[in-house]
UniProtKB/TrEMBL annotation:
This is Protein HTATIP2. Residues 4-150 form the NAD(P)-binding domain. It comes from Phainopepla nitens (Phainopepla). GO terms for cellular component: cytoplasm. GO terms for molecular function: catalytic activity. Monomer. Forms homodimers during oxidative stress. Interacts (via N-terminus) with elongation factor EEF1A1 (via middle-region); the interaction is direct and competes with EEF1A1 binding to guanyl-nucleotide exchange factor EEF1B2, thereby inhibiting GDP for GTP exchange and reactivation of EEF1A1. Interacts with nuclear transport receptors XPO4, IPO5/RANBP5, IPO7, IPO9 and KPNB1 as well as GCN1L1/GCN1 and LRPPRC probably through their HEAT repeats. Binds NCOA5/CIA. One of its GO terms (biological process) is import into nucleus.
Length: 169
């Protein structure tokens, strides 16, 4: 494990050397970080990490993105996610998996409406995956499974149902 300064990521290129697989779950929210910092974290740092990983020999990059990622939307969060997906694909990995879940996870900060929705969706997600949520643990297992059972395609973009299947593999 290497601790790196994200503001000086290029100075930590050695930490990205010699790895066959890269996993990236880096992200924040606009509400937490502000618009400029959100873009810096969710797009700039992720794209730079992907470039460093590829230069270091990474062959399969796995990115946790978001359902609804789209470069054409007016919503900043989803637009940035779509843009970073394109940037990561352009790096040229042998395999690139971009998971697009709606995460179901516990947060430290208080978000009352999200908490209420998660109580309901959490119960539903335990029975079957929905287009609205995937438990965090399932996403983590799916990230590993997609590397252990690589697809023939160069780029794979599973959403909630496929992520749930991968997470149970």
């Amino acid at each position: 494990q290497a601790v790196v300064d994200l503001e000086r990521l290029g100075e930590h290129a050695a930490a990205f050397q010699g790895h066959d697989v890269g996993f990236c779950c880096l992200g924040t929210t606009r509400a937490k970080a502000g618009a400029d910092s959100f873009v810096r974290v969710d797009q700039d740092y992720v794209a730079q990490a992907a470039e460093l990983a590829r230069a270091g020999g990474c062959k399969h990059f796995v990115l946790q993105s978001s359902r609804g990622a789209n470069t054409q939307t007016r919503f900043l969060y989803l637009r940035v996610k779509g843009e970073v997906e394109n940037l990561v694909q352009a790096v040229g990995f042998g395999h690139c998996t971009i998971l697009q879940p709606v995460l179901l996870c516990k947060r430290q900060e208080s978000r009352p409406i999200e908490w209420i929705a998660q109580q309901f969706l959490g119960a539903v997600a335990q029975v079957f995956p929905t287009p609205y949520s995937v438990p965090l643990e399932t996403v983590a297992r799916a990230m590993v499974a997609c590397v252990l059972q690589p697809d023939e395609g160069k780029v794979k973009v599973p959403e909630n149902g496929a992520i749930d299947d991968l997470g149970k593999a």
